[in-house]
Specification:
4-stranded antiparallel beta sheet, mainly beta
């Protein structure tokens, strides 16, 4: 079992930046691909970004390409999501997840952190 804890959410004006962090327990962090997903009110949870277990490969949703950057520090069991150029439509609960499938690493989930972007 992997436990994930997100932090770094908050309220920011459009055009601003936030950096989300996700800390994982256990010694198996480096064996999992990591990902970020988000869920806006009344909508389904959708994929945002993922990173391979050693960090060599990343993948992004078209809506965040060029604005968001996913990275990981395996020595600290932590994955990050740097979000720049935030838009009101980025408002959502952001979830960290991990799994064996790099394309959709969703075997284990964090509790989520709220990101609100004001116009």
């Amino acid at each position: 079992q992997v436990q994930l804890v997100e932090s770094g959410g908050g309220l920011v004006q459009a055009g601003g930046s936030l950096r989300l962090s996700c800390a994982a327990n256990g010694r198996t962090f480096g064996t999992y691909a990591m990902g970020w997903f988000r869920q806006a009110p009344g909508k389904e949870r959708i994929f945002v970004a993922s990173i391979s277990k050693y960090g060599y490969t990343t993948r992004y949703a078209d809506s965040v390409k060029g604005r968001f950057t996913i990275s990981r520090d395996n020595a600290k069991n932590t994955v990050f999501l740097q979000m720049n150029g935030l838009k009101p439509e980025d408002t959502a609960v952001y979830y960290c997840a991990c799994g064996t499938n790099y394309l959709r690493p969703d075997d284990y989930w964090g509790q989520g952190t709220q990101v609100t972007v004001s116009s």
